[in-house]
Write a structure and sequence with these properties.
It contains no helices and 15 strands. With 185 residues, the protein is mainly β. The protein has one domain. It has a 15-stranded mixed β-sheet that branches. A hairpin with a 3-residue loop joins strand 12 and strand 13.
């Protein structure tokens, strides 16, 4: 399925707003899909929400947030000028934003690496307490905190590297202006 929305063009283009001819348009879609569907959504100037799917997911937007709830699969999430939220979900996660925070709660994750990157935002990642992973987390201008013990790891105010519960999947986290928090759920 493919859905496209095109807005009408103004005769005066760029200058339409100055001439009082600006056209404001708002569109919302609610689409029901089979649970196992592969989902690919690209959007601009608005948010994207997804719930309940069990497949590969690619969500991309600008000037809007991305929210995923109660879903399973491989998630590739990308936005600028918006936050990324993943709640009560399972699978692999690649999340990238500029000027927004990332909050992710994974009830399970696959052996694929988890990668969360932002600038000008914080990162909060919640994983099950008994998770096995290797963490590589850094913030240029913020604290890195963890509920998980990282025996023998390299820890500092702005970074954390090492193995949790013997190591495993790599959890890579970067932010430039914000803190990083790893929570055990």
């Amino acid at each position: 399925m493919r859905i496209e929305t095109h807005t009408p063009k103004s005769e005066n283009g760029f200058f339409a707003g100055y001439l009082g001819q600006e056209i404001n348009v708002g569109v919302s879609y609610k689409v029901h899909l089979p649970r196992q569907a592969t989902v690919a959504i690209e959007n601009s100037n608005g948010g994207v929400e997804l719930a309940g799917t069990h497949g590969k997911t690619h969500l991309k937007t600008s000037n809007g947030s991305i929210t995923v709830r109660e879903a399973e699969g491989d998630f590739e999430l990308e936005t600028s000028n918006g936050a990324i939220t993943v709640a009560r979900s399972a699978g692999s996660l690649q999340a990238d934003t500029t000027n927004g925070s990332i909050r992710a709660e994974l009830t399970r994750f696959t052996p694929k690496d988890l990668r969360l990157e932002t600038s000008n935002g914080s990162v909060v990642l919640s994983l099950p307490r008994d998770s096995h992973f290797s963490v590589d987390a850094e913030s240029s201008n913020g604290r890195v905190q963890s509920d998980f013990a990282v025996p023998g790891g390299a820890t500092g105010r702005n970074s954390l590297k090492g193995h949790v519960n013997g190591g495993g999947t790599t959890v890579f986290i970067r932010t430039s202006n914000g803190g990083v928090t790893l929570k055990g759920a």
